[in-house]
Write a structure and sequence with these properties.
The chain is mainly alpha-helical and 405 residues long. It has a domain of 101 residues: Alpha Horseshoe (Serine Threonine Protein Phosphatase 5, Tetratricopeptide repeat). Helix content is 73%, strand content 0%.
């Protein structure tokens, strides 16, 4: 009994000690888990109980934009979602910022065209959930205009201006819509007003870029250069501004300034393929054929699926009298467009025609006839501007066994 009694008393004490230790251990685990969760939320800028993390994330996205890191801007800004605990305009500003980033990135390299469609999809969803918010309607207007829906873009921008006539971003979006619609004089007037009303460097850069494009379209190339130079002064890390600068320089015959602008693109983005293609074109213009061949060869190595690179390389070989390599590169250009199912009216006609001319110069009649027949079949039921016609008996020097139809 005594033994049993001592055993029972000791066992109860052990259980009590074990229960206290377990409780402390469990509390420690819960506290540790809460600490880890809070660190994760903070690190990933997820709003837990207040709007501060989303505001900080927006600041990070804006800083990335100012550094010219458009991909990081998009990644950060797209994570920001409507949050009742956050300041009311955080989400709206994030939508406008990510739209800007998509539109700028969409013109920064050869493989970014889908960014324009993505911007339209994103802003369409945003405006459906918050149709009366000015910044969201402005973002929607920019995306609509970028995708060629200029009438709807003008309506969206004007809806904001009807309530807020001094809204510089809405004015810039309206100018962009006019520019894309071909109303260039009206675009100049609205863009000038947007520049005047802009209150920060980002808004002013937008307005100046649109103003430069409108001036360029009216034929006032010096004014276009002046406007884009001012935009670059404000936002020197944005790659698309240098593509614009090069274009306007070429309009005035200043190939040196264009070259400098493309080099600046490569300084900011050393993997940029589009800048290399443009340098190939400028080198051709300057009759620096070895340099042109080098840049175009870089393009085809870095972007083997981009038909424009093979076309330009083929053209350079053609101009240099290397017709065998010209024929081969033009064939690659034509094949890629067919394989990628590029709509016939949008295909580059020269990839067939110059391929045929190279074959004819080389006396390669089978290749010439095959290329010609392919072009004729491809365009038989499609509206194309270009024509390529031989008599029924075939090209001179290349008699056919049967009449060409």
């Amino acid at each position: 009994m005594m033994v049993r009694s001592r055993y029972s008393s000791s066992n109860r004490g052990a259980r009590r000690r074990f229960s206290c230790a377990s409780l402390l251990f469990l509390v420690g685990i819960v506290a540790g888990a809460a600490s880890v969760t809070w660190l994760w939320l903070t690190r990933h800028n997820v709003s837990a109980t207040s709007g501060v993390p989303s505001a900080e994330q927006l600041s990070q996205a804006q800083a990335a934009f100012l550094r010219g890191d458009l991909s990081l801007t998009i990644a950060l800004a797209r994570e920001i979602q409507p949050d009742p605990a956050a300041p009311a305009d955080i989400y709206d500003r994030a939508v406008l910022l990510v739209t800007r980033a998509y539109l700028y990135r969409g013109s920064s390299d050869y493989d970014r065209a889908n960014d324009l469609k993505t911007a339209l999809t994103l802003t369409t969803r945003a405006v459906q959930s918050a149709p009366s918010m000015p910044l969201i309607r402005v973002a929607y207007a920019f995306a609509l205009a970028a995708n060629g829906l200029t009438a709807s873009a003008g309506e969206s921008a004007n809806a904001v201006l009807a309530v807020l006539p001094e809204h510089s971003s809405a004015r810039a979006a309206l100018a962009y819509a006019y520019s894309r619609a071909g109303a260039h004089d009206r675009a100049v007037r609205e863009a000038l007003e947007a520049v005047r009303a802009s209150s920060d460097d980002t808004d002013r850069t937008d307005a100046l870029r649109i103003l430069a494009a409108a001036y360029n379209d009216t034929g006032d190339y010096p004014a276009a250069v002046a406007a884009i130079d001012e935009a670059i002064r404000l936002s020197s890390t944005l790659v698309p501004l240098y593509f614009d600068r090069a274009l306007y320089a070429l309009q005035t015959g200043d190939a040196d300034a264009a070259t400098v602008a493309y080099f600046q693109v490569l300084t900011l983005d050393d993997a940029n393929v589009q800048a290399r293609l443009r340098l190939c074109e400028v080198s051709t213009l300057l009759r620096e054929h070895d340099t042109a061949l080098d840049y175009c060869a870089q393009v085809t190595r870095m972007a083997p699926g981009w038909s424009d690179g093979w076309y330009q390389l083929g053209r350079e070989y053609f101009l240099n009298g290397n017709f065998a390599l010209a024929q081969s590169n033009f064939n690659r250009c034509a094949t890629l467009q067919v394989v990628q199912d590029v709509p016939v009216p949008e295909r580059r006609f020269e990839c067939w025609y110059l391929q045929g001319q190279a074959a004819q110069i080389l006396g390669d009649c089978p290749a010439l006839l095959a290329t010609y027949q392919e072009f004729r079949l491809m365009t038989a039921d499609e509206p194309v501007l270009e024509t390529w016609v031989y008599p029924p008996e075939g090209p001179p020097g290349c008699p056919t066994a049967a009449p060409i139809r």
